[in-house]
Amino acid sequence: MTKWITLPTQEVPDFFTELNLHPIAEQTLLRLGIDSVSDAKAFLDPNEYTPTDGWEMPDLRTAVDRIEQAISTRESICVWGDFDVDGQTSTALLVQTLQSLGANVHWHIPIRATESHGIKIPFLKEVIDNGAEVILTCDTGVSEIEAVEYANERGVDVIITDHHDLPEKLPPAVAVVNSKRLPDEHSLSTLPGVGVAYLLAEKLLCNKGFSPSHLLDLVALGITADVADLHGDARYLLQRGLIELRQTKRIGLQTLYKVAGINPLTVNEGDIGFGIAPRMNAIGRLGDANIMVDFLTTESASQAQVIATQLEGLNTQRRLLTSQIYAAAESQIDQNPKLKETAALILAQKNWAPGVIGITASRLGERYHKPVILLSVGEDGVARGSARSVAGIHITKAIAAQSDILHGFGGHPMAAGMALDADKIPAFRRRISKTILDNLGDAGLPAETHLISAWLPLKDLTLDLSADLNKLSPFGPQNPTLILASRNLTLSHFAKIGKNKEHLRLTVKDKEENAQSILWWRADEDDLPPKGSKFDLAFKMRTGEYKGSPQLTLEMVGFRITEEIKEEEAKQKIEVLRLDVESFDKLRATGLQIFVEGKSKIKGKNRYNLEKSDELVVYTSPPSAKAWRDILKKVQPKKIYLIGINPPKLTAQEFLAHLAGLVKYTLTKKDGETKISALSAVTAQREATIRLGLEWLAAGGQVVVDVDGDDVKLSKISEILKTSEISGKYAQAELFIAVKGVLAEAVAFRKNFASQNKRQ
To answer: Smaller CB count within 10 Å for the chain: N or C?
Structure first.
């Protein structure tokens, strides 16, 4: 059960008055341990903060000397990065810096689908064979002992800049510049990869009399996307970087702002975390992130537009894949509730798209407030997975304790990756749960907690208050967004919003009839408070924008019922009669409403045009539990005649070929306009399956797909918007895996449909 804890207040020093802060902001500073005016000013204003000299970073001077030597002798330098946002920005930052200094530089970002993280020797060999004489890593390398030894054997020097956890023994590189080599309390210790790379670039540029400030926009992106602790210089660099982002000269970022609908003048850490970073990460998960260096450094508007369009398409695919895996994971938990009783939630399935299981694990971790490990079982019988943790549990250490049954692992306190044989998953689940509980001791798993900074009536929630509290930004780890709360509210109205209606907008009222609008991301109406009930509401506040004007935005954190109004009538049980096909032929003459989808000679109605009726004939098995619930909610039958004919089982290839035929027909006969619901009904498949299939076609460069809710607009693809061959290839591979998965889920549901619906 979620705990609600109201944070205690402290006595405010008299000298705090010169800060001119709201009392809630004053209390927040005191809770952060800031109890002097000078420290408060340094926290609030980057101009009041004294940045730490980068020379305090171990091995930085050695790294600078070796790179300056390479520049002067025209040695070929390869910047070796990583495919997430931290790695992309680090790579672009170092490449841009070295190019400006006249270096002979190129870069290599591993492709996730074929190389994974780190430095794999076959790909390193290729880089060295192509002439690299110095390898400069960023956001990677600190654990790559064998790769560094190989480079040394080839006469190539390696310089490592990284921030990942240190191995027992450092690799034999010329320099290992890693923020984790500093004490935890050091002001540079929480810098992510891009922060470490910036220190190197800063010294290289300053040595030549140049300013590095134009690089701070990239630093802000990496710090926020990597969820770095905002302590010391990490917070300072983010503050400076946000200022630079609001006036960035990078054409790529300017184009991305337009695509994502972000106002350049007000870019903040929320815009990065929820608008910019997901689009940049999508290409790293589903394509080839090497083009991001071009995107972040290009001076060509047309090149920026092409890549931005590609990012948008891949991000749409990423969202679909994530939704599919999330739904499949929840289905597993529904079928076997004991899975969520362990200290770590560990789920596995064949053909989960590996590029997005980490994102899905994060979402599940937020829901169940415990470490989550999702494993995709390959055709080779090996389960490869991603882990995400919660505060207080070092997930990589817990995984390391099971190393005897793993093929490999690695990661941070909050995230990790691993591989093991699929038949070892039950043992892995038992063992890691025991390890976590043993480490936690009597305290047990940390409960989800809402730390309430202040309770406020709805009438006090204003734009002025939001502006006052925003002085504490940027928010993030070690400076979380404030949670506020209001008491005894009722739900007045709700509406589904978002491109795919995946979010809710609520209107809540208090007893004085004051009303406020609340956004609830990734919520379903089944999650709403019971009708008529009173509840306390916890939320976050920010200032948004609507049609050019500032708008107060409240975001749901949680609610707790204070007074529940029970429905007077219990849910009526539904009588279910099973019929064979012969009996059904006799029933057809009665004119009862018949549910039927897919290719069939039987005339009836699909799930979208059914009407309320006391009786319903179910000829076709629905494709999912959600579709079945929606049918029951729409018809509200008292009696069901169940035949439950299963549509033909299709392979992924057969389904996609069928969908491609429907797309071709829509383009030629219907001016490219159709609906997700229409395609779902004619194929007898889930809407998620249709969306994934359309994105598979789009990723293959066969068609442009524009989906807005249920509406679909198809058009023939133009050459300038074609996805690059390599990105399209890997995006299609991930989407194909997902299509196989959702088709298999539909088959499994239909197989058990009759036995699962004995009584509704």
So the answer is: N
Phi, psi for 4 (deg, rounded to 5): -110, 120
62 and 110 assigned to the same domain: yes
The span from the CA of 168 to the CA of 165, in Å, is 10
CA angle 416, 421, 422 (to 5 degrees): 95
Q: Are residues 340 and 283 in the same domain?
A: no
The CATH number that applies at residue 80 is: 3.90.1640.30
| Residue 285 CA: distances (Å) to CA of 114, 171, 424 | 11, 27, 27
- Cis amide leading into 354 (omega within 30): no
How much is the pLDDT for 357?
93
pLDDT at 117: 84
Domain boundary among 313, 347, 379: 313
What tokens appear for 758 in the block?
């004995």
Residue at which a domain ends, from 427, 443, 459: 443
Residue that has been written with the tokens 């390599």 in this structure: 726
- CB under 8 Å to 487, separation ≥6 — which residues? 455, 510, 536, 562
Going by C-beta distance under 8 Å and a sequence separation of 6 or more, which residues neighbour residue 661?
Answer: none
The parent domain of residue 656 ranges over 572-760
Residue 126's pLDDT is 97
- In the numeric block, the tokens 């749901």 are attached to 556
Q: Which residues contact 52 (CB under 8 A, 6 or more apart)?
A: 186, 187, 188, 232, 233
- What is the domain count for the chain? 5
Q: pLDDT digits over 211-222, tens only? A: 999 999 999 999
Alpha-carbon torsion (198, 199, 201, 205), positive or negative:
positive
In CATH, what number is assigned to the domain containing residue 486?
Answer: 2.40.50.460
Domain identity same for 639 and 548: no
pLDDT of residue 727: 62
Residue 701 in domain: yes
Q: DSSP H helical segments within 588-724, as ranges? A: 625-635, 652-669, 676-683, 687-699
| Helix, strand, coil tally for the chain in percent (to 5) | 45, 20, 30
Q: How far is 88 from 371, CA to CA, in rounded Å?
A: 27
Q: Is 217 in contact with 250 (CB distance < 8 Å)?
A: yes
Sequence-distant (6+) residues with CB within 8 A of 365 are 345, 371, 372, 388, 389, 390
DSSP reduced 3-state for 78: strand
HEC readout, 107-162: EECCCHHHHCCCCCHHHHHHHHHCCCCEEEECCCCCCCHHHHHHHHHCCCEEEEEE
Say if 321 falls within a structural domain: no
Instruction: List the alpha helices (DSSP H) in 369-424.
Output: 395-400
Give the pLDDT confidence score for residue 413 in this predicted structure: 82
E strands of 521-635, at which residues? 534-546, 549-563, 575-578, 594-595, 615-620
Q: Which residue ranges in the chain fall short of pLDDT 50?
A: 567-571, 719-721, 723, 757-760
Let me know if residue 326 belongs to a domain: no
pLDDT at residue 658, as a whole number: 94
Helices 145-153 and 121-129, axial angle in degrees (round to 10)? 30
Residues 415 and 510 in one domain: no
159: Cβ contacts below 8 Å, ≥ 6 apart: 63, 66, 67, 134, 135, 136, 137, 173, 174, 175, 177
In a domain, 461, yes or no: yes
Ramachandran angles phi, psi of 377, nearest 5°: -90, 120
| C-alpha to C-alpha distance for 91 and 193, rounded to whole angstroms | 10
Same domain flag for 342 and 306? no
Q: Tokens 């529940």 map to which residue?
A: 564
Residue position matching structure tokens 């369009």? 309
529/640 same-domain check = no
Q: Which H helix or E strand runs over 295?
A: helix 291-297
